[in-house]
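Duplicate of #3305? Posting structure anyway:
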């Protein structure tokens, strides 16, 4: 695991964008694994700038997103479908047909999880996976637990996650209680992973990545088993 400590959020975003851009330049039809939440917003802004000035091209890029609330309408401004369109897809020259997100509108969650895994398996596999990290160490919506899932599945959000995400909603009661999420196994299949962490509230979760232990009670620690992970964090998150 390589750790890059940046001065602040902006520097972290630029550093992450350089790595994603290098991947996109090396392989025009790269498959990107994308994350939502507040942390990757700066990275997406950097990628939009690079695309607008012709430095990177999304025309052959394919994407898979980590997760989506369930159930949720695509029109809901808190859906990750909406988030991705607002913050990246509508701002770059990506073909919407090349983007895939677990479908929060699917009538059958189990069938949708199976469809999603099949779509990832039928692709050439994620070249670079962008990850955030929860204060409790979750990656995607894989919450701390005695048992983790390898594949895409429906997850019940923990109180900690509901509270952390309530900042995006009017009331905590409005935060969806369930999500469809890639499993830890699906995430670990990516050839390269970059995990972004910013701010003091991520300090405990990041500290757990710097020692030698692995626990399902901090799902991000499983990344220690992957051979190409870069943690890019700011000084506040590193502490
Ligand atoms: P955040 O969420 O980027 O909004 O902090 C990260 C996460 O919960 O995985």
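Output from current build:
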């Amino acid at each position: 695991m390589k750790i890059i400590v940046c001065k602040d959020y902006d520097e972290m975003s630029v550093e992450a964008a350089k790595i994603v851009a290098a991947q996109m330049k090396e392989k025009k039809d790269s498959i990107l694994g994308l994350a939502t939440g507040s942390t990757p917003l700066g990275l997406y802004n950097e990628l939009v700038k690079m695309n607008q000035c012709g430095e990177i091209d999304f025309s052959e890029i394919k994407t898979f997103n980590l997760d989506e609330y369930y159930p949720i309408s695509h029109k809901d401004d808190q859906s990750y479908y909406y988030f991705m369109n607002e913050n990246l897809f509508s701002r770059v020259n990506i073909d919407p047909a090349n983007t895939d997100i677990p479908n929060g509108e699917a009538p059958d969650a189990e069938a949708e999880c199976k469809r999603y895994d099949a779509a990832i398996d039928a692709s050439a596999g994620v070249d670079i996976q962008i990850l955030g990290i929860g204060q409790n160490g979750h990656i995607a919506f894989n919450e701390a637990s005695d048992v983790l899932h390898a594949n895409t599945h429906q997850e019940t959000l923990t109180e900690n996650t509901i509270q952390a995400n309530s900042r995006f909603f009017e009331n905590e009661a409005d935060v969806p209680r369930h999500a469809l999420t890639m499993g830890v196994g699906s995430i670990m299949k990516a050839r390269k992973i970059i995990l972004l962490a910013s701010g003091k509230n991520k300090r405990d979760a990041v500290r757990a990545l710097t020692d030698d232990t692995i626990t399902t009670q901090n799902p991000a620690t499983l990344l220690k088993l992957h051979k190409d992970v870069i943690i890019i964090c700011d000084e506040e998150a590193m502490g």
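Confirmed duplicate; merging threads. The beta strands are 2-6, 31-34, 62-65, 67-69, 99-100, 128-131, 153-156, 178-181, 192-197, 229-234. Residues 37-39, 132-134, 138 surround 2-phosphoglycolic acid (CB under 6 Å).
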